[in-house]
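Anyone? Bumping this.
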Amino acid sequence: MTSPHDDVDLESPSRRELLKRGGLVVAFMWLGGASRIWGMNSSEPIDESHPLFSPNAFVRIGSDGSVHLVMPNVEMGQGVYTAQATLLAEELDIGLDQIAVEHAPPNRKLYINPLLGEQATGGSTTVRYCWTSLRDAGAAARDMLVNAAAQRWKVDASQCTVTRGVVTHAPSGRTLRYGELAEAAAKVTPPAKAPLKDPKDFQLIGKPLRRVDTPGKVDGSLLFGMDVRVPGMKIATVRACPTFGGRLASVDDTRALSIPGVVKVVKIDNAVAVIAEHFWAAKQGLEALDIHWDPGVNASFTTEQMFADLANASEHGKPIVAKEVGHPDDVKGKVISATYQLPLLAHAPMEPINTLVHVRPDSCEIWVGSQVVARCADVAAKVTGLPPESITVHNQYIGGAFGRRLFEESVGQAVAFAKQVDYPVKIVWTREEDIAQDCYRPAYYDRISATLDDNGKPLAWIDRTTGASVLASFAPVAMGKDGLDPDLVECAADLPYAIPNLRSEWVRHDFPVGMKVGWWRGVGPTHNVFVVESFVDELAHAAGKDPVAYRREMLSDDPRFRGVLDLATQKAGWGQGTSAARQGRGIALAAPFGSYLCVIVDVEVSPQGEIRLTRAVAAVDCGTVINPNTVEAQIQGGLVFGWSAALYSGITLKQGAVEQRNFNDYRVLRLNQTPPIEVHIVPSKEQPGGIGETGTVMAMPALTNAIFAATGVRIRQLPIDTSALVQDKNALKEVLSATSPVGDALEAGELS
Amino acid sequence: MLSLLVNGQSYSVDAPDDMPLLWVLRDIIGLTGTKFGCGMAQCGACTVHLDGQSVRSCVMPASGAVGKKITTIEGIGATEIGKRVQQAWLGIEVAQCGYCQTGQIMSATALLAQKPTPSDADIDIAMSGNLCRCGTYVRIRAAIKQAATGQATLPQTIA
């Protein structure tokens, strides 16, 4: 069977169609149909040690009746294992409670994500790319099992039905289980293309099925990469040069080696690791090292310098135009302009970076949770000098990634340490190292302006973003011919609004060499939707119009925008009732990752400038829903992730190094700060859109627009500086002396 | 040698007195359900019970747990309240990545043991020391209420 992904036209998508699919997808499709080169041929049988029936890369059925589904993407909380298992199981006619899932090994040929041109999980692409191909794989397997039964019974396959993995021949009342058919099914010729179910017959798709991974997450039995243990394993912890691009000059390990449990100190060019019997000894050892760094060329780099450089590039750099419509420079009228500034961000997932590696003379085995498992194998081959076929990577459940584990540099580092010893070693970064050595979401400096008609509607719109490209280092070959990284303009080039004259452009300004940048949940849209939706709000205010009415007047002809706008405003009661002083309601509207969302946030800002979120309402049209429970969870969680960043998180630099180290100075939202969040889904039969990052995209502008409604203060710089929101300076002093974060107070009380 | 009682089982472990209980559990005894998140009692992923009270095991010297009953996520299902909390967690599908959830469940169980029908303010106080980067807080709150009252306020997953 071949597996065309019918919903992805890889032949000749127009530029506009591509932009609608999302910047990263565009970028990787510019690779020139990488997916056609490698193909996603799900008919290819998987390895030798397979159970009896393995008709393709995703389905394995044993004669004992066990059904294993191989997950081409990785589970990091976003629910893809459940979604992908649902797609396979739906067509296989088996229950999610009857299957087990497995992590796919590195194998680009079998498990490539055609929207990313790589065996990768990211950009909210998973369900979008596999919606058809995994159902095809399930249907083909079912077809072969049913034909095996029909052949044994000498009946027509069309007389057979399947329920929960049992094939029934109704006229004779005979039944056979999948396990009993596995051996025979392996000999059946695969169908060219098995028919897919009519959506009205779906048994699993669209239902709030329990996730396949939650029982083990509730009783502690599920293993994350951090939890893997192998015989003879030691544990190490690392410190890399805090200054980006710096080097290890020298290290005195005398004191460290005298600590009980410390085994060895190993060095690489820019980092040192202490190997020990357990993490505690390793950490004690690390702290006992006397390390001298050669900080290199970035030794005086600061956040202030970074933004000065960005501003300079924005003013004087040469922009790459992503989209130009009409003549935005020639329109006459009232001009409104603003500058927005977004900080560097760390990912700070709950599971710090870790990699377990065993380098033997002729092989290298790795256990790590990764969004790019094939790249992990590549880097291990490169660092060890071993041939690719002698590298084994066991992917693992990931304790949150948000983009962090799209970057395998920590795996390369772990292998470089591990090849210095002959036993397996698990490298575990401290939280401090995890925050100080992240691949940071780039900072941005955006200048945006609009020329308005007499009614305050924009006749022209010019949005110039300035910042670094992640794609340029991740996949340089995927950069546009004109040097454009589409991620930079995703949701900036294509707006929900019809504006006759528009230009969206980007000035590339990379960070100093040695400073790693990375994608962060919501990628380009998180950045651009904040700017666009904040600025639309500014324009509405300038026009003296209600932010919803203003948006409604300018909406493009795509009815799905109106659908989510109507639903969210109705559920939130927009325009109804009155709000007290310093209470406000804000809105954001966008279509990231093939989904449409409208989010409305209510806040209260105290006279001292403290922000309290009191309610959030989201409406989403993400096309066909695989699991509504996951959709709701991802939007709720995505909003919390975005609010965390807007309210508290920002990475700052001093002397070329990150200043933050742990959750005390890289703060994130806590339970007591989280409002009730309603998620309303617009019923749709369209192709599935992405969902994992959408909440984060919407969170920041909905919040800051609400703060404007409450206080009249426009937030153009993140994280939010609450001192700008203070109404009563004296009251502020009292509050500052009386409060500390709830978490800290709680722990101090408990531990004293 | 330290003598520790974990989930009803005795362990004799060779560990320095100041070694945090977290690492004794994970790296010596091999109970990995208790997680490392921050190492400084900021995130709550390492929450376990000492005689029924929540503690952050990443800053709790193992020697301080000698003579006390240590309960981890691997043992909490054997308690009536712990089991109810786990059921509620499954019923409304709280977990996303799941890394922090074992700590969340330990904090929630300790809360319900103290306050069988907690108010929103009680939940705020007991749970705000447990971070969740996936942002499952809305469901954590609902699951605690469901475990407390037996009443489901949100749709339940289909198992």
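Late reply, but here is one note on the structure posted above: Chain B touches chain A through 71 residues (CB under 8 Å).
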